[in-house]
UniProtKB/TrEMBL annotation:
<dbReference type="GO" id="GO:0008270">
    <property type="term" value="F:zinc ion binding"/>
</dbReference>
<dbReference type="GO" id="GO:0016805">
    <property type="term" value="F:dipeptidase activity"/>
</dbReference>
<dbReference type="InterPro" id="IPR010964">
    <property type="entry name" value="M20A_pepV-rel"/>
</dbReference>
<dbReference type="InterPro" id="IPR036264">
    <property type="entry name" value="Bact_exopeptidase_dim_dom"/>
</dbReference>
<dbReference type="InterPro" id="IPR001261">
    <property type="entry name" value="ArgE/DapE_CS"/>
</dbReference>
<keyword id="KW-0862">Zinc</keyword>
<protein>
    <submittedName>
        <fullName>Dipeptidase PepV</fullName>
    </submittedName>
</protein>
<keyword id="KW-0482">Metalloprotease</keyword>
<dbReference type="GO" id="GO:0008237">
    <property type="term" value="F:metallopeptidase activity"/>
</dbReference>
<keyword id="KW-0224">Dipeptidase</keyword>
<dbReference type="GO" id="GO:0006508">
    <property type="term" value="P:proteolysis"/>
</dbReference>
<keyword id="KW-0479">Metal-binding</keyword>
<dbReference type="Pfam" id="PF01546">
    <property type="entry name" value="Peptidase_M20"/>
</dbReference>
<dbReference type="GO" id="GO:0008777">
    <property type="term" value="F:acetylornithine deacetylase activity"/>
</dbReference>
<dbReference type="InterPro" id="IPR002933">
    <property type="entry name" value="Peptidase_M20"/>
</dbReference>
<keyword id="KW-0645">Protease</keyword>
<dbReference type="GO" id="GO:0006526">
    <property type="term" value="P:L-arginine biosynthetic process"/>
</dbReference>
Amino acid sequence: MEGGLIMVEWIEEVEKRKDDLIKDLQNLLRIRSVLDEEKPTDDAPFGIGIKEALDFMLKTGERNGFSIKNVDQIAGHLEMGQGEDLIGVLCHVDVVPEGDGWSSDPFGAEIRDGKIFARGAIDDKGPTIAALYAMQIIKELGLPLSKRIRMIVGTDEESNWRCVDRYFKKEEMPSAGFAPDAVFPIIHAEKGIADFELVSREHRNEEELETELLSFQSGQRLNMVPDRALAEIKGSNQMMEQISGRYKEFLDQNSFQGSSSLNEEKLTLSLEGISVHGSEPDKGINAGLQMAGFLKGVPFQQKGLTFIGFLNDFMLNDSKGNKLGVAFKDEISGELTMNVGTMSFSKGFSKIGVNLRYPVSCDFKVVQPKIQSAANKYQMDLHVIDHMVPHHVPKDHELIQTLQAVYREQTGEEPELLAIGGGTYARSLDAGVAFGALFPGKPEVAHEKDEYIEIEDLLKATAIYAQALYELAK
Ligand SMILES: [Zn+2]
């Protein structure tokens, strides 16, 4: 220690502990901590695997001299340091089910080509162990701290976030922190996300018209672009043949895949689109909206016209909300986007499901009435199913400045601040960002078969976390 300056070769400190780090990670990965609520007990509300993984973290923390706490068997923490102020690292030890097609045992934690393969390797057990060793290095080097550092371990991130909901009802909120549960460099802004449905009101029966929209189905999830649409139409043979002929032209003109089949007086049309995540709807082809586009102008009965009309007038080829008058854009987090994820019409009843992602400086209280007023014209009501407000830590916040400085020093790369349409675990912290552990340009393997973490990246992340936690808490 010279002039009060502490120089630590962070990566060397990590290398010294490499074998133990890998062994601990392998042991954690061998626990199949998938949510299981078949036979919940007070001791294991989310199943035996999850309990085992949480216990593993707390036991390892205790072994290493951290103070630990189990919060209702669904979350816990490991703490070190001293002082009023608290710095948080938010991790999770639950994993999604392994799925099929693995080249080796998904819970074997086999090492091949410098990678550890297992469900949870990158999401989020690898980063969790990296953060644990980061804390341990600070502790073992005896570096002086003026704040406490606390690792918060959740067990329900992949499902309902009941772990952090409960945890922060009972426990202290860190003044700043990060979640190593996404990508490097730093995600500092996450859009607001609202899921809502537009549902037709009850209205009187009407006389049957010659051409009737019997049913329309497209999409199953609000946050995915639907890749298939199916419509059934009834009418005179002549009319059905005309529509069928026009449909074939429509498919050809747009190079779409689809089919039409006429059976008695019933015509069935199907269309294939391209499914992508609902945060970037323009990258896909929305089969339901394209089908609605084709059906515009068919002289359906009133209820059918209402359904097709709304989709055409307010949704088709407009994922930015221009037609609804809700388009919005800010410098921090970009544009408002809208994905029409489900569309259904049956027995005269329509239901349209939308996943809306809005920028951090936009207010849903302004957006919602505008959409409702458009829906009013079509006798539909808006029901919010789910809503998360935007999350944002400003660029000049000390947390961001510190993480950027550490990242720049250790990687030599410029730590660009990212804004995303999705939600990360970091948003459950008041002042929290997502910080790693996947490095830029590396393939996204979370939730996929043959999930892995590269050992070199694991060690690099550990060194970055160690310095970051030290700088934040010193
Ligand atoms: Zn995760």
